[in-house]
Write a structure and sequence with these properties.
CATH class: Mainly Beta
Low-confidence stretches: 25-36, 355-361
CATH topology: Catalase HpII,  Chain A, domain 1
Shape: globular
CATH architecture: Beta Barrel
Number of strands: 10
Order of helices and strands: HHEEEEHHHEEEHEEEH
Strand content: 15-25%
Number of helices: 7
Mean pLDDT: 89
Number of domains: 1
Distance between the termini: 101 Å
C-alpha cells in the first residue's frame, strides 16, 4: 500500500497571506479608514470659512483679498550651483502672481496687522513651472495642520462681539506656545506700508538638488530694492479700507518695483519640518536673480484669479521638505479652487479703482 503524500508546506501560503494583509492595511491607512483621523483639504477649508464668517462665493478661502501682478524674473545664473532647476539658469523668465492680505473676507479693511503676501508662478521655455506663496514674516504661527485648524476655530470672531472668545484663545495659546511666540513677534515687528517694500519669505523649507547630485535644504527671501517703511499700528483703524492696494496701483503707475531672490542654505542642525522655527545665526546666502513687477491689475481682468499657488508645484531640482504644512497647503488650495470654481465671484475690493479692465503699468 502506497503512503499518502505529505501535505504541502504552509510557509509559502503564510507569506502570501502576510503580504496581502500588509498591502490591505497600507491601503486602508492611506485611505484614512484606520489609524488616527487625518485632515483633508475640506477640513481646513471649512475652518477657514467659519473663521471668515461664512462663505464668500467665488473667492479664495484664505488670502481672499488680492491684486494680480505681472513681471519677469532675471536669473543671474548663481542659483545653478544650488539646483538644476532651469528657472535659475541665466536668462529672463515671465512671471505672474498676486499680492494679498491674510484672511477670508475679500472686502476686509487693509488696516490689520496680518500677513502681507506675494504668490508667483514662474515658467521656463522647457515647460517647467515653479509656484510659490510667501509671507512677509519669517515664521508661521503653527507647525502642523491640526494646529492650524484649531487656531482658525479658536480665533473665529463671536458674532455678538466681533472678537474671538478670549477663553477659547487662552486655552489654545496655553497648548501652543509657538503661536504665542508668533503673536509677540508680529506685534513688535514692522508692518510694511506697501506691498512693494516688504520682504517675503518662503516660510517652509525645501530641498534643492544640483547637477552634481548634491542635495541641501533651503529657504528663500524676496528682498525689496525699496527700503521698508512701517505703518503706524496705533492708527490702523483710520486707514482707508483699500489703502495698501490703492498704494500699489498708484506706485506701479509711476515705476516698476524690484526684489532680489536670495536663497538661504540650511546649516547642519537647522529645523526643516517646522515653519514656526527661524534659522538664526550666519548662513550661506546666494542672490540668484531679480524679480521685477511692472504691471498690476484687478482680479476680474487679471490672470491670477483662476489659478492656485500650490507651493508643491516645483521644477526638477526642487522638492518639498519634510514640513507637514506643505502637503496640507496643496490640499486646501486645491479644495478652495474647486469650491470657488463652482461659484460666481463678485467684484474685488480694488476692481472699481481700475478703469474698464485696464492694467496699471
Amino acid at each position: 500500500m502506497r503512503d499518502n503524500p505529505p501535505p504541502p508546506p504552509l510557509a509559502p501560503y503564510a507569506l502570501i497571506a502576510a503580504i496581502v494583509l500588509l498591502l490591505a492595511t497600507g491601503l486602508a491607512w492611506a485611505a484614512g479608514w484606520i489609524g488616527p483621523k487625518r485632515l483633508n483639504g475640506g477640513d481646513v477649508a471649512d475652518a477657514l470659512e467659519q473663521n471668515a464668517g461664512g462663505v464668500h462665493p467665488g473667492y479664495r478661502r484664505a488670502h481672499s483679498k488680492g491684486l494680480c501682478l505681472v513681471g519677469d524674473f532675471q536669473a543671474n545664473g548663481a542659483g545653478a550651483a544650488l539646483t538644476k532647476a532651469s528657472i535659475f539658469a541665466r536668462g529672463d523668465y515671465p512671471v505672474f502672481g498676486r499680492f494679498s492680505l491674510a484672511g477670508g473676507n475679500p472686502l476686509a479693511i487693509d488696516g490689520r496687522n496680518v500677513f502681507h503676501s506675494m504668490a508667483l508662478i514662474l515658467r521656463t521655455p522647457d515647460g517647467q513651472e515653479w509656484r510659490t506663496g510667501m509671507n512677509h514674516t519669517p515664521i508661521f504661527p503653527v507647525a502642523d495642520p491640526q494646529s492650524f485648524v484649531d487656531l482658525q476655530l479658536a480665533s473665529t470672531p463671536d458674532p455678538k462681539t466681533g472678537k474671538p472668545d478670549p477663553a477659547l484663545m487662552k486655552a489654545y495659546l496655553a497648548r501652543h506656545p509657538e503661536t504665542k511666540a508668533f503673536q509677540d513677534y508680529i506685534k513688535q515687528a514692522v508692518l510694511p506700508n506697501s506691498f512693494a517694500n516688504a520682504t517675503y519669505y518662503s516660510i517652509n523649507a525645501f530641498r534643492f538638488s544640483n547637477a552634481a547630485g548634491e542635495t541641501r535644504f533651503v529657504r528663500w527671501q524676496m528682498i525689496p530694492e525699496t527700503a521698508v517703511e512701517g505703518l503706524d499700528k496705533a492708527k490702523l483703524d483710520s486707514l482707508p479700507r483699500d489703502y495698501l492696494f490703492k498704494e500699489m496701483v498708484a506706485r506701479t503707475a509711476k515705476a516698476p518695483s524690484r526684489w532680489h531672490l536670495v536663497v538661504v542654505v540650511a546649516n547642519p542642525g537647522d529645523v526643516t519640518n517646522k515653519a514656526t522655527v527661524a534659522w538664526t545665526g550666519a548662513h550661506r546666502t546666494v542672490d540668484v536673480g531679480t524679480l521685477t513687477v511692472s504691471t498690476v491689475n484687478a482680479e476680474e481682468v487679471g490672470n491670477c484669479r483662476d489659478v492656485n499657488f500650490d507651493p508643491t508645484v516645483l521644477p526638477a531640482g526642487m522638492a518639498p521638505s519634510d514640513d507637514p504644512l506643505l502637503a496640507v497647503r496643496a490640499k486646501v488650495y486645491s479644495t478652495s479652487f474647486g469650491r470657488r470654481a463652482s461659484e460666481n465671484p463678485g467684484p474685488s475690493a480694488i476692481g472699481k479703482d481700475l478703469h474698464a479692465g485696464e492694467s496699471v503699468r
